[in-house]
Specification:
Chain lengths: 170, 109
């Protein structure tokens, strides 16, 4: 069994818990906090499959299964990048209302050590929490993130064929 | 980040032992207090006090696991400071310079 590790990212967001929850669970539009992907799910309930797809819908970046869905405090799902053959890990968002704002904790559990998944999630965790904060507090992601998303869209064709939506029915 | 949060962050980082503790936690996600304390000559109570300061600055996240506290490094506040004090252009050129510095210093060793 591969060695696994856990990473935790936390930020306090000056906004309402409902606004933060909405950014993490909304469907039918891009989730700017989560790499501008679109959340697709059989249903937002434990045991149901979910995916994060590109804006065009042609590629599936992440597949998983919802493990907990407790509005507006906890959303958890298993997580596997379709472009890598790494074992799945689990992503958990915990929201807590504090006097100063909403404490958002992103935990990535069972990350397979030394894999590309772990490398991506280590960097991705900071980016997701930071972008989520900017989104809720200012209404849009920082400029560098907007530029990156523009590049993602323009370069979508470089994604591997194995990530094509045709290979990942929901 | 507001001024109070910045004060907590810089206060936490302005201590050599706390930076060393943070490094141990960063290298060993999920470690406990005893593990961290085993790396230092000062008392366990001393380590606990330093960790409380790091936790107040949101640099360390602790989770209760039975009677133990497991510790994780949270990189988000440092990233926030980095982004607050640099822009797209200064980040690019500063990054080039730090890369150059690393390359030269690595080569001279």
């Amino acid at each position: 069994m591969a060695e696994t590790t856990r990473a935790v990212f936390r930020v306090v967001i000056n906004g309402t818990i409902d606004a933060v929850w909405r950014e993490l669970t909304k469907q039918g539009e891009a989730q700017a906090a989560v790499f501008n992907c679109w959340l697709h799910a059989q249903a937002l309930a434990p045991g149901r499959k979910m995916q994060m797809r590109t804006g065009s819908g042609k590629y599936v970046m992440v597949v998983g299964e919802i493990t907990e869905f407790t509005p507006p405090t906890r959303f958890a799902h298993t997580f596997r990048f379709t472009q890598f053959d790494d074992p799945e890990c689990e992503v958990i968002y915990d929201l807590k209302q504090l006097p100063a704002g909403v404490e958002c904790t992103l935990t990535v559990d069972r990350m397979p050590v030394g894999t590309r998944t772990a490398k991506n999630m280590q960097g991705g965790g900071t980016m997701i929490t930071e972008t989520l904060k900017a989104l809720v507090e200012t209404g849009r992601p920082p400029l560098k993130i907007r530029l990156m998303y523009w590049a993602f869209g323009a370069m979508e064709f470089v994604l591997p064929k194995k990530s094509s939506s045709k290979n990942w029915p929901l | 980040m507001n001024e109070d949060e910045l004060d907590l962050l810089f206060h936490a980082m302005a201590s050599q032992p706390r930076r060393a503790i943070l490094e141990v936690v960063r290298e060993n996600p999920g470690c406990n207090m005893n593990f961290v304390a085993s790396h230092f000559e000062f008392s366990r109570i001393g380590v606990m006090k330093h960790i409380d300061v790091l936790e107040a600055a949101n640099l360390v996240i602790s989770e209760r696991s039975g009677r133990e506290r497991t510790l994780y490094f949270n990189p988000v506040p440092l990233q926030e400071v980095h982004e607050e004090w640099t822009d797209q252009y200064s980040r690019f050129f500063a990054g080039r310079l730090t890369h150059l510095k690393r390359m030269i210093e690595k080569g001279s060793k």
